[in-house]
Amino acid sequence: MKFSNICIITENVSGLARFYEAVFQTKAEGDDIHCALSTDGAVITIYSKKAAENDMSFNFSEYWGSGNFTIGYNVDDVDEEYERLKTMKVDFVTTPTTWPWGARSVHFRDPDGNIISFRSLLG
Asked: Residue 105: pLDDT above 90?
């Protein structure tokens, strides 16, 4: 088994794609219905809620919004990324924090409210 991607269902594919292009400093490939951003280690796809419901025949609104996961990325320097993200006026959940398990991380939200974690492993 091989991990393929994380798919974010949204009502604003273009807006979310622009956000993730800026955050991950990469280009989204696709259109305003479905696009993908390749990052080191994973692909993030962004899919129109309306198109997904038409294609898959179920109502995503009944299942989304639990907030039970984060999209996590290792970065070289959490504090440097935090300063860069502040210029983008992202909605931070935490400021850079060093945790007892040997990681320093910052958590923030995308425009749809999904939580992203950038972390650096210490020592």
From this structure: yes
